[in-house]
Amino acid sequence: MQKILVWDLPTRLFHWLLAAAFAAAWLTAESDTWLALHVFAGYLMLGLVAFRLLWGVIGSRYARFASFRFGPRAAMAYLQETLHGKAKRHIGHNPAGSWAIYGLLGLAVAAGLTGLLTLGGEENHGPFAGLLSYGLGHAFKELHEGLASAMLALVGLHLAGVAVESLLHKENLAKAMVTGCKDGETAQAAASPRRFSAMALLALVLAGGAWQFKGYALETPQQPYRPFVGPTLPDNKVWRAECGACHLAFHPSLLPARSWRRMMAEQDRHFGESLGLDPASTREILDFLENNAADRQLTEAAYKIDRSVPAGETPLRITDTPYWQKKHRGIPAETWRDPKVASKANCAACHLDAEQGTFEDGAMRLPARLGK
Amino acid sequence: MKKPLLTALLFAALPAYAATPLEIQQSYAAEAKQQNPAFKEFSAARGEQFYRAKSAKGSSCAACHTDNPKAEGRHEKTGKAIAPLAPVANSERLTDPAKVEKWFKRNCQDVQGRSCSAQEKGDFIAYLRSVK
Predict the structure, then answer these.
(1) Which of A222-226, A237-241, A242-246, A349-353 has the lowest mean pLDDT?
(2) Contacts of B75 in chain A (CB under 8 A)
(3) CATH number assigned to the domain comprising residue B75
(4) Is A343 within 8 Å of B105 when comparing Cβ atoms?
């Protein structure tokens, strides 16, 4: 018995990159601020699985699917033997571990694809942008979350299996996935570490990361990078000049049409001030507001605000809509007190696309992260 | 037809009519004379006093436009930046009569709780023009 190479370098690199990508995706799942990273982690997982499928055919000895082609019955039998403490040691993947691999690869693909469908439906981005309704996007999100949870559960089983096997056969399997080496006979060794393929894989991943995040390196304090750029929304010169004079020109898509009608009807007492707009400007602005109101669902925010406002209510403040309140519940009090924020009406303090009115989930940064 | 109304209509009909700050000040002189036959001329000193004085509503022009009309102001409630008022710091100021009238209408109502007289408006412009 001596130290022999079992896991080639690309297999180990794939394993740890997939683990890191899944961890990153899981940790950024609930956060709009980190959406760009979450989406990258998803693309990375899909790319890694594609690589692994290829490597399962052209990789070295123990990376090939042929070396761990076990049926479900073999996997069950192996699990039972393990429970009785008499499972046979495998140099490569054992039958139960093989099924964890099949499951994790399948779930990564399913979670990745439903993630892309969510991205297309809810955010109007990615390959499926514009092809799905918000409602359908939301349905895929539920499925996406379920698949991710199943994957986490399987990761847990995989780790438990590694721990049990390591104890049973008195070898550190986690370490073997780092060094690539196990105890065995020379004849059992994998032929080569395949360093060149590993470097190529790493270069591809790094290039993908650089492509995805290059905007952060090029941004300036005046022009923060917007990882998600929404659609170009209708604009109007009179609206932007008049409404944008005293505050951010809140895009019409942020309130229902009935709210805008009330706003203009009550323009002589507009939050304590009188607008005094001439009739022609009033007409033009109201037309623009009504034609692009939340009811028209021009953006995800519009769709969700419109759905959240009860039919009998006509809020004048965007901050009074249930959707706004739900989305801002987690903002700490000191962030609101930040001099760069000053007012809840100051959307642009955090939303990089407030002027454009698109309010992309992924275009939001708390002022602390915007730099001084 | 009364002259102020005629002036207002003229402004409304020519919203982008470009003028100099002096021309706009002069247009208020005619109106001031009509409102008060004893009217002589506008005073930058009186305008400055008006700019800084706290109104009965507890506000002032300076509250948003700051003590220095050459500085960038800030909306009291929303925090939105306001470009400097003095033409010396902002060449676009006092060049569009309709815009000048619109903001007098709004801000006199909000700060003073009433509309401003032509005398007050002229003094105000005279003050802004005097800022060097």
Answers:
(1) A222-226
(2) 246-247
(3) 1.10.760.10
(4) no
